[in-house]
Structures are given as C-alpha cells and as structure tokens.
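Quick question about two entries, pasted in order.
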Amino acid sequence: MSETVQALRVAAAIEEQAMTDTIFITGVVIHARHGVMEHETEVGQRFVIDLELSVDLSESSRTDRLADTVSYSNVVATATAAFKNTNYKLLERAAGAVADAILAAFPRTSAIKVTVHKPHAPIAAIFEDVGVVLIRTRQSPSTWLTC
C-alpha cells in the first residue's frame, strides 16, 4: 500500500472519529523483557504505557452503567498481558501487540493510541525518556480507499 493511500485512510478514520469521546489511562508501569540487547531480555526493565481509547461514551454518560462503557480495569489487564506475554526486540512491535489486543477485546473502541516509554533504554546519552506512539483504528468499509 502506498504511503499516500495509507495517509488518506488515516485522515478519513480520524475525521470519522472526530466526535468520539476518549478514555485515557496513563502511567501503567510494567516490568518486561523487551529489547535487542541480551541483558534486556535476561534482566528486563521498567516500561511505562499510556493508553487513549476512542469510545462513544454518550450512552454511559446518561445511564451510569459499566455495561455501557469500557472497563478501565479490563483495559489495563488486557494491555499488560499483551505487553508481557511475548518478549519483543522492538518497542514498535510491543506497542502494536497492545493496540491489537485492545481493539480485539473491546468492540466499543474505535481507535487506540498506545504510548510506550522506555526510560532506561541502553543509549549512550543522558536523556529523560524514549519511546514510541502508535495510533490504530478499527478498520471499517467506510475507511477503505481504492486506488
């Protein structure tokens, strides 16, 4: 798929989601064994995950019922399991696993933004933080474009 087509898909999905509400969960600390270097996979290190879920909250904002929204606790459990169950070399892949798991587990979620911080990455520099941000949207026929 060309970069132009992919950019158009993302723009269409964002426009479609413009009226969507957000559930956010920040600062989830997880010890995991992701990384390219051998000591990262042996000892592991601390990662911090931030999540933003695009969810229509209009129903739950009227009913005050958990069944009409997405359980924060279940989101954290799903994200943690997806992040820890497999050791990945790249943060990009670990973040992708979290995004895929959230979209699969929570049908009310139309899009997910996953930020993974790796504050102790083995980089020969003084830095505060390093990480990745992924945004994934649920694919629907209205966002498919043809060339």
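Here is the second entry:
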Amino acid sequence: MHVTKKYIANNLILFALLFFCNSVIVFGQGQSDFLGQWTGQEDLNSEAVNYENRNISIVISEGGIREGFYIFQSSCDFLFNEDLDWAFHYFGFDKENNKIIFLRRFITPVGILGYEELVYDLITWSDDYFVAQYGSENRQTSHQLRMSINLLDLHYPIPSKTSIHQNFPNPFNPSTIIKISSEKASNGVLNVFDINGSNIVTLYNGLLLPGETLVTWDGKNHLGQIVATGTYIYSLFVDGRLRESQRMIFIK
C-alpha cells in the first residue's frame, strides 16, 4: 500500500510538472508573436465559393488607432477588402480563449465604414506555424488558414522609404499641413477620403524628391467647396501602392 501511494504521488507530481511546462509554452506566447509576414494556404467552403489549398500571404504589423489590435494586409479576399485597402484592417489575439480575430472592413448599406469580425480558433500554434479555423454562426461558411512565418522577412525587414506624418494642426480650421518624408525619388499620390470611403480631393500627384515635402489642405473638396465638420483620412500611395494612412479632424 505504501508503494502504491508513493507511485501515485510521483505520477501526480510528474503530471503537474508536465502541465506547468506546457502552460509556460502556450501561455508564454502573446500577440507580438504574430508580427511579421506569413505565407501559406487556405481552404474556403461556403454557399457561393469553394476552394482548397489556395496560396495566400498575411502581413501583420504595428499601427492603427484601435487599442489592443495590430493592423494587417493580406492577399486573402475573405480576410482583406482590397477596395478599402486605405482603411486599417485590424488583427487581434484573444489569449484567454486561444482565438485570433480579423476585422475586415466594408461599407455599410447606409454608406458608413464598418467592419466584420472574423474569429478563428487556433488549432495549432508554434513560433513559426499556426493553423486557424473559422466557422460562421449559421455553419454555412468555414475557412481554414495554414500559415508559416517568413523568417527572412522577420529578421531582415525592408525599411519603409517613404512615410507621412500626422498633420499639424489637428483638429484644424481653416488649413493644415501634411509632411511627407522620402529617402529616394518616387511617384506619390496623396488623397483625402471621408469616413465612408469617398475620395474628397487629391492633394498631391507627382514626383516625391528625397527629403521632406509639405502639402497643405484648406478643407475643400475637388469642387472647391468647404467640407463638413468631421474626421477625414489621408492616404499616401507610392508607385501605385498604398504606403500609409492617417486621420485628421476638420472643424468649421
């Protein structure tokens, strides 16, 4: 009896140690472990579209204005709306429930910029690989991601050559200045959008020389009319690709 009790006690201790070690491995990971460029495959099963093993990429980076979330871009149409690539798409991690969250942007029927929350269960997750599964509430749509980190991109990132700064003053009336910093010559377009995604005015369209370029907006649209009080988004496109977006507030 004494041997049996000792055997049981030793096994309980061993089980506790294994559980603790596994807990450290799992619960020691956090949202920052998702930062970087991921490549892999997706399967989608829905009423409208069905496919398997489609190659996709997801780039998760710091930024945006939503607390507790990162921003992301992706070649996956189910996750990322390319028509609204100027608007932040957000990524989050629910550590307590072991889920990842993608906020896909869209325009609501009343013309307001909104987002669809896509919550995925993390089936497998390590430092360089994860499998995540999504299922709609009506069970008519399922989506699986199988992604691996691009270690080359993670350890040798390519620095951004061109960026925009927060406008000053902000909020503003009657005008504000937006500074563009560029390390090399490139073709740049600076557009202003309202929160519904409508293009209000193009502030700059031309060659960006190395150094700083200052652009002024007087609060007028492309017709020369003063815009309404509210929040506006200015986006910089470099060589035809979206580089960065910021928000500003105009007050009459």
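Reply: The domain at 162-250 is CATH 2.60.40.4070 (Immunoglobulin-like). Confidence is low (pLDDT under 50) at residues 1-8, 11-27, 153-160. Hope that helps.
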